[in-house]
Every structure is written in structure tokens, then in C-alpha cells.
Design goal:
The chain has helices at about 5-15, 40, 45, 50-65, 95-110, 135-145, 160-170, 185-200; strands spanning about 30-35, 70-80, 80-90, 120-125, 150-155, 175. By secondary structure, the chain is an alpha/beta fold. It has one domain (about 30-50, about 55-70, about 75-200): Rossmann fold (3-Layer(aba) Sandwich). Helix 1 (about 5-15) crosses helix 4. The radius of gyration is 16 Å and the shape is globular. The relative contact order is 0.19. InterPro entries: VWA8, vWFA_dom_sf. This is von Willebrand factor A domain-containing protein 8. One of its GO terms (cellular component) is cytoplasm.
């Protein structure tokens, strides 16, 4: 992988190990929702969005290795063909508008069923919601559907200023833009730290 290097992995892995806050009583739950739609492949030559997505998924799997007692995670895919494509189920660690939003709602509902200290859902996407007729307001509602779940979007691709425009319409602090894989560990650390500080 072109820009996936040891220092990037080490920064994220270190963030996983250094958790702030009160002693953990239960596992933390994380659902990583990955865009596997055709646009990820189609526009990869423009901005490497598919490569960044694969690098981020590898980074998450490697960072959580040997931390099964602290974190329980799964990796789901979403595309025009489905919204609940199990890429990495939590028990096996290492085309329309409604379906596009349903993956986020599904991940939030499912993750909240488990008993955990904290719940996280992180969506990796190329911000190409306009193509599927999804208004930013509906995406924002999906992010906020359950107050006990910390849901975020990381946009890893953009046609023009698409990601910037979408980010401006979403709730503050709930979306990030990472056009370089090296930015993802810092974003994930910011997500985990901000939620832990707000709950203390």
C-alpha cells in the first residue's frame, strides 16, 4: 500500500492503547462502515479513495489485534446493491436512497444492542451522496439516530468540493475529510478522545 507505513500504524495503534477516562468495565464497540460502491473503484484513479479505504481497514484490524478484551468491532460494507454487507463480522475478527441511509441506521441499532462502555460507528465514504439523491439533512439525522452511539463520517474522496460542502451541512464534529491515509489515525484519535472527554 503506497502511503500505509509503520509510523501511521503506530500512531493509531498507540491511540487504541492509550484510552483516557475511568477504568473500563466492558468492551468498547466499534462498527466501521466502508463504502464499497462502484464510485470508489471508478474514481480511485482520480484521488486514490479505494486505496485509502483499504489502508484504513487494514490499519483498524492491525491496531485492534491483541485488544479483543478492550474492543469488539465489526466491518460492514455498503453499496447500491446492499446496506449490510458483512466484511468482518464481530465474531470473526481478522441502489437506492433508503438502502444508502439504512446501513448507518442499521449499524447504530445493532451496535447499541451489545452491552458496552461506549459505542462508535464510523462511516468511510467518498461523499458522493448527491449521486444517490441523499440530502445532507437525512444523512445528519442518521448519524444522530441514537444518542448513546457516537457516529461519525470520514470522507476519503471528493469530486471537487463535494466533501467540503457536505461537511459544512453535518453536525459539528461529526465529519472529517482525509485525503491522505496518514490523517486517519489522528482523526480516529480525535474521535475517541473527544467522546471520552465529553462523557467524563
Amino acid at each position: 500500500m503506497s502511503e500505509y507505513d509503520a509510523s501511521t500504524y503506530e500512531r493509531f495503534s498507540g491511540a487504541v492503547r492509550r484510552q483516557l477516562g475511568s477504568p473500563q468495565q466492558k468492551c468498547k464497540r466499534l462498527s466501521l462502515v466502508v463504502d464499497v460502491s462502484g464510485s470508489m473503484y471508478r474514481f480511485n484513479g482520480v484521488d486514490r479513495r479505494l486505496e485509502r479505504s483499504m489502508e484504513a481497514v487494514c490499519m483498524v484490524m492491525e491496531a485492534f489485534e491483541n485488544y479483543e478484551q478492550k474492543f469488539k468491532y465489526n466491518i460492514l460494507g455498503h453499496s447500491g446493491d446492499g446496506f449490510n454487507i458483512a466484511l468482518v463480522p464481530n465474531d470473526n475478527v481478522p441502489k437506492d436512497n433508503k438502502q444508502r441511509l439504512e446501513i448507518l441506521k442499521h449499524a447504530i441499532r445493532e451496535i447499541a444492542k451489545d452491552d458496552a462502555d461506549e459505542y462508535f460507528v464510523i462511516v468511510l465514504s467518498d461523499a458522493n451522496l448527491e449521486r444517490y439523491g441523499i440530502p445532507p439533512a437525512r444523512f445528519a439525522q442518521a448519524l444522530m439516530i441514537d444518542p448513546k452511539v457516537n457516529a461519525f463520517a470520514i470522507f476519503i474522496g471528493s469530486l471537487g468540493d463535494q466533501a467540503d460542502r457536505l461537511q459544512r451541512t453535518l453536525p459539528a464534529g461529526r465529519s472529517f475529510i482525509a485525503m491522505d491515509t496518514k490523517e486517519i489515525p489522528q482523526i480516529l484519535q480525535q474521535i475517541f478522545t473527544s467522546t471520552m472527554l465529553s462523557s467524563s
